[in-house]
Specification:
This protein is α+β, with helices and mostly antiparallel strands. It has helices spanning 2-24, 62-69, 84-87, 96-102, 162-165, 250-253; strands at 26-38, 44-46, 53-61, 77-80, 89-91, 108-113, 116-118, 121-123, 125-132, 135-139, 143-145, 150-152, 155-160, 171-172, 176-181, 185-190, 198-199, 203-208, 210-225, 232-235, 238-246, 260-263, 273-274, 286-291, 295-299.
Length: 304
């Protein structure tokens, strides 16, 4: 047993000496090296994807070459694109010295594949469009948002190619929800992200005005537009108009003049029902409803 242990010790020592000698020798190997393209002109966009890795034939000390295989060393090499705009291509073998400066000191770059990378750009443009809020406010009982949401800023400048921007006429926020809202306030809302476009800013501030509300119900006579009383009969002649108003404007908006109309153009001969409308809804009135939603009509013989 003792003899076997001694043999294993001698073998291990011999193996370690052999490995140490091998690691200080120079070797040649091929590595897949990740690359990143820097200094791309801001006003330009690449029309084709560039390779994310380059295959390099490397000569170096064994200990350094072994590191990438152990995932101890795998730094990303940077390729400067400032001259590619003028030439529309990169000759990777002309960059050996630049690559060498980013690799371990013992490395020499013998060859790079692909040796040429085509580079094509398209010019970017800018376009200013309004921001559309995708915001949902869930109100506490007895409260409503009585005015439109206000955004600051209410527009955004997008940067991209003409093709990317051609059919974009507005830009949304991310879906955003607030629960149990019962007072006026504001929230910072992120804009929808994009991988193809550059956004002038990532967020917008949404302002909302919350007020207590109450309901108003009124009986209003129907006016017929385009026919007189002898040409058409309607039933009923009055409808109930209901709507919500801010509590502090109840006296004003509960008696504000309202007109309910039927238009002769909507009275089709094959039908006998038509929907009355309120052509002008005063500011401050919300969720207006008419009951019944349809009234019956009968044209008399004198109607044209």
């Amino acid at each position: 047993m003792l003899r076997r242990l001694r043999f294993l010790q001698y073998f291990l020592i011999t193996f370690l000496l052999w490995v140490a000698i091998r690691l200080v020798n120079d070797y040649t190997t091929t590595l897949q090296v990740p690359v990143k393209y820097v200094n791309i002109p801001g006003r330009m966009k690449l029309t084709e994807e560039l390779p994310e890795h380059l295959t390099m034939s490397i000569k170096g000390r064994g200990q350094d070459i072994l590191l990438p295989y152990l995932n101890i060393y795998l730094d990303t090499l940077h390729i400067d694109m400032k001259d590619a705009l003028r030439r529309n291509y990169l000759v990777t073998n002309n960059l050996k010295e630049i690559f060498k400066s980013q690799l371990p000191e013992s490395f020499s770059v013998l060859n790079v594949h692909p040796d040429t990378i085509p580079v094509f750009f398209i010019e970017k443009i800018t376009k200013k469009v309004p921001v559309t809020p995708q915001v949902r406010l869930k109100m506490d009982a007895g409260f409503l948002v009585f005015r439109q949401l206000r955004l600051e800023p209410d527009s955004i400048v997008l940067t991209g190619t003409e093709q990317d921007l051609r059919y974009i006429h507005s830009w949304p926020t991310e879906d955003f929800a607030l629960e149990n809202v019962h007072e006026t306030g504001s929230s910072l809302v992120p804009l929808k992200a994009s991988t193809d476009l550059l956004l002038s800013h990532p967020t917008t501030k949404v302002f909302y005005r919350v007020e207590r509300y109450t309901e108003v119900s009124r009986k209003i006579d129907i006016q017929v537009v385009g026919l007189n009383e002898r040409q058409v009969r309607i039933l009923p002649k009055r409808v109930t108009v209901s709507y919500l108003v801010p509590l502090d404007r109840y006296e004003e908006l509960s008696t504000v003049p309202l007109t309910v109309q039927l238009n002769a153009r909507d009275m089709h001969p094959e039908a006998n029902l038509v929907a009355p409308t309120v052509p002008q809804v005063p500011e401050g009135i919300h969720r207006l409803r008419i009951s019944p939603r349809h009234v019956r009509f009968v044209r008399t013989l004198g109607a044209q």
